[in-house]
Amino acid sequence: MNDPLTIAEEWMKEGRDVAIATVVETWGSAPRPVGSHLVIDSDGNFEGSVSGGCVEGAVVAEASEVIAEGKPRMIEFGVADETAWQVGLSCGGRIRVYVERLG
User: Fold this and answer.
1) Which residues belong to the signal peptide in this entry (predicted)?
2) Residue % of the chain over a pLDDT of 70
């Protein structure tokens, strides 16, 4: 897998609108460590991982809104929140992800 930060830089040089999602906190056995990144462009293309595939789809959807609105947001996923039936971490952990527009 390519470095997500390098990909983000390349995409921005191409004129794409880009957001980055960063794992800022974990609880339990979260599949990716703090500092892991997922970069997303306005077409929904993405590189990297914040959860090993568990919640990437939901993060891409949130990032699309962040790109459109220009407002960053903090999102949280885990087995005990209201999204548990929509997306979930198979390991049973929880993660908090900060999503912001780049550029």
Assistant:
1) none
2) 85
